[in-house]
Amino acid sequence: MRKPxxxxxxxxxxxxxxxxxxxxxxxxxxxxxxTFLDLANLLExxxxxxxxxxxICEHNRPFEPRKYxxxxxxxxxxxxxxxxxxxxxxxxxxxxxxxxxxVDSPPETKxxxxxxxxxxxxxxxxxxxxxxxAVWPDLACKEYKTSGQYEGEIHKTTQKQxxxxxxxxxxxxxxxxxxxxxxxxxxxxxxxxxxxxxxALRLQGWPG
Length: 208
Known about the structure:
There is one protein chain. The protein has eight helices and seven strands; from the N terminus they run ββββαααααββαβαα. With 208 residues, it is an alpha+beta fold. The protein has two domains: 84 residues, no CATH class; 106 residues, 3-Layer(aba) Sandwich (Endonuclease, Chain A). A three-stranded mixed sheet has the order 5-6-7, sandwiched between helices. The chain has a two-stranded antiparallel sheet with strand order 1-2. A two-stranded antiparallel ribbon has the order 3-4.
């Protein structure tokens, strides 16, 4: 078919291999892997990492149904690594290098990346606090027993607040210090959020 031509629409035509295309309800669309690669030329770096985190997110936590990835991590890495001569490929490869399994929302991705850029100790994702498989913080620094929680809108429900209180108590009992980050904190800027984590890490023995 011809490229679309109409107001406010820019059409493109690409000849794609069969492996980059699938069919949903009779409509041919690009695969999630190919769509990620196409987005690499459009999105800001942190947003592209958030897309990758979404695609590969999976976890098997005892307190909720198992989550399966849209695209397994190894598959996305292999796909991006095998492409050549595609616009945005360099940015896609950089994003793949920064993606992590177990991230549940874009704000969690952005929080992790800003802590990384600040040079703080590594905070991992998809981590169960040792001795309590029911406590899985969004971000965890095992060395200094410091965790990070992004408290989005879902945490305002009564059921979630009760769950969070139980999580907080169990975390504290095992010597972990939590840093809770809200959207208001993120709006104050990266330096404000980083300082919150620095204070917690120092209390837990970090010499930085």
